[in-house]
């Protein structure tokens, strides 16, 4: 081995002239190169480890964010469902309140009316005259029962005038008390044995719901009779029409008081 290639010996000897004109000698040995390479490798390793740790940290953060995002999505879906339920319930309650109010208003209007059945209709063409004839006929019938009709009532025929039997007559009063007094006096007259024409009766005015319930009761009555069931009738229990059985031996019909119109 030559002297110049032995370890530790300079691999580069070069005379350089600096700016001042003096000569400098720069020598780089193998140890210097290896140390520089090792230093670079160590630095790169440290940088790689730091980068790898950063990537691991970022990966963990991403996983955590995905998990948190999934939880937030679930909570958002739950909140949307709750909001939808609240909106639906609000709409439902508003609708129910409106229906209740409408039924209450209808009941209030009906409380001022009486329905009269079995009064023969006038055949004159003039509508005003027909109304006057109805009022005269009703006044006379009530007089026979020792009942009096107010002078300021309004009379309206219900339904089509092509019906084979007289249409019901709605009598509109100014107060509920007038209605209650007349109906009470009418029932007392029947119980006291007053004779009344066949099919004539007074009844309180009914709301649409009450008419539906009454109609359903009579439908059930007819179906059960057609099926062969005997001794049944429509009776009002706590104000609600229901089909009930009765003992024919104890059944009394004073002056058709137990007759109920089919509405």
Describe this structure as you would to a colleague.
The protein is built from four helices and eight strands; from the N terminus they run ββαβαββαβαββ. It is an alpha+beta fold. The chain has three domains: 33-110; 112-205, 2-Layer Sandwich (Alpha-Beta Plaits); 206-250, no CATH class. The strands form three sheets. Strands 4-5-3-6 form a four-stranded antiparallel beta sheet. Strands 1-2 form a two-stranded antiparallel sheet. Strands 7-8 form a two-stranded antiparallel ribbon. The protein is rod-shaped. The model is unreliable at 1-17 and 252-263 (pLDDT under 50).
Q: What tags apply to this protein structure?
A:
coiled coil, Alpha-Beta Plaits, 4 helices, 263 residues, disordered N terminus, four-stranded antiparallel sheet, alpha+beta, 3 domains
């Amino acid at each position: 081995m030559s002297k110049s290639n032995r370890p530790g010996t300079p691999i580069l000897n070069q005379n350089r002239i600096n700016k001042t004109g003096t000569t400098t000698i720069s020598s780089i040995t193998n140890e210097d190169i290896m140390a520089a390479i090792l230093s670079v490798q160590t630095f790169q390793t440290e940088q790689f480890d730091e980068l790898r740790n950063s990537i691991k940290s970022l990966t963990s953060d991403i996983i955590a964010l995905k998990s948190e995002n999934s939880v937030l999505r679930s909570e958002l879906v739950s909140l949307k469902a709750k909001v939808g339920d609240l909106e639906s319930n609000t709409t439902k309650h508003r609708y129910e309140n409106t229906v209740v109010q409408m039924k209450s208003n209808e009941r209030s209007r009906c409380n001022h009316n009486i329905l009269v059945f079995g009064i023969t209709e006038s055949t004159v063409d003039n509508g005003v005259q027909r109304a006057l004839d109805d009022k005269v006929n009703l006044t006379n019938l009530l007089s026979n029962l020792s009942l009096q009709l107010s002078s300021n009532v309004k009379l309206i025929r219900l339904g089509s005038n092509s019906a084979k039997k007289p249409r019901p007559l709605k009598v509109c009063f100014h107060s509920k008390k007038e209605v209650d007094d007349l109906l009470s006096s009418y029932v007392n007259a029947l119980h006291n044995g007053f004779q009344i024409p066949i099919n004539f009766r007074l009844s309180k005015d009914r709301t649409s719901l009450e008419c539906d319930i009454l109609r359903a009761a009579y439908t059930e009555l007819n179906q059960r009779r057609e099926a062969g069931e005997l001794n049944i009738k429509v009776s009002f229990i706590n104000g609600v029409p229901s089909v009930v059985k009765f003992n024919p031996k104890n059944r009394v019909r004073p002056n058709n008081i137990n007759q109920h119109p089919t509405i």
